[in-house]
Amino acid sequence: MKILVNFASGFIGLFKSGASTFIDWMSSIVPLVLLLLVLMNAIISLIGEEKMNKFARFSAKNPFTRYLVLPFVAAFMLGNPMAHSMGKFLPEYYKPSYYASAAQFCHTSNGLFPHINPAELFIWQGIAQGVSKLGLNTTELAIRYLLVGLVMNFIGGWITDYTTKFVCKSTGIQLSKTVDLK
Fold first, then answer.
1. Residue 109: is it exposed, middle or buried by C-beta count within 10 angstroms (0-12/13-18/19+)?
2. Angle at the Cα of 110 from the Cα atoms of 85 and 125, rounded to 5 degrees
3. Running DSSP on this structure, what letter comes out for residue 109?
4. Average pLDDT of the segment spanning 120-135
5. pLDDT average, residue stretch 1-21
6. Do the Cβ atoms of 89 and 57 come closer than 8 Å?
7. Which tens digit of pLDDT belongs to each residue from 57-79?
8. Is 70 within 8 Å of 86 (Cβ atoms)?
9. pTM of the predicted protein model
10. Which residues cross the membrane (predicted)?
11. Can you give the C-alpha Rg of the chain in angstroms?
12. Looking at the predicted structure, is the pLDDT value of residue 53 above 90?
C-alpha cells in the first residue's frame, strides 16, 4: 500500500511542480513575450506589409542580405515559424539556403529576443540559470550567442547554396534563380 501512496504523491507532485513553473512564467516571461509580439505586429502594421515584401525581394539579391539581414529581420519581426514565410519571395534555388539560415537564427537569438521562439525558451533559461549560478552575466552570453549565431547562420545558408548546386547538378534538376510571384 505504501508503494501506491508514494506513487500517487509523486504523480501529483509532478503536476504541482509544473503548475508552480507555469505560474512563475505567467508573472515573468509570458507578459514580456506578449508585449514584444504586440510591438512587432504594431511595427509591421506601421511599416506596411507591402514594404516588408519589397524588403524581402531586395534581400534576395546577394548572400549577405539573403542569409544575414533577411533572416534576422524576419525572425525579429515575425518570430518562429512565420520567419520562414519570407522565403516565399526568394527564387526557388535559394529557398533551401534561406530556410537553413532562418531556422538556425530562430534558435540563436532567444537569449535577447525571447519572442522569436518562445516554445524553446526553456532551453535558454536552463543555460542562463547555470551561467547565473557561476556568477556570470547572462546578457553578455546572449549577445555572444546572437553574434556567433549571425555569422554561423550566414555561413550555413551560404554552404547550403553549394549543396543545392551539387544536388541540382547530380540530379539534373534546374531551379530558378529569378523570383516568380504568381
1. buried
2. 140
3. T
4. 87
5. 84
6. yes
7. 788 888 999 999 889 888 888 88
8. yes
9. 0.69
10. 29-47, 67-87, 142-160
11. 21
12. no
Lookup: cell for 107: 534558435
Express the helix, strand and coil content of the chain in percent, nearest 5 each: 80, 0, 20
Angle between helices 29-47 and 2-26 (to 10 degrees): 40
Cis upstream peptide for 71 (omega within 30°) = no
The residue that leads in pLDDT, 101 or 182, is: 101
Q: At what angle do helices 70-78 and 29-47 cross, to 10 degrees?
A: 120
Residue range 126-153: mean pLDDT, rounded: 90
Give 17-63 as a 3 state SS string: HHHHHHHHHHCCHHHHHHHHHHHHHHHHHHHCHHHHHHHHHHHCCCH
Give the integer Cα–Cα distance in Å for 181 and 57: 10
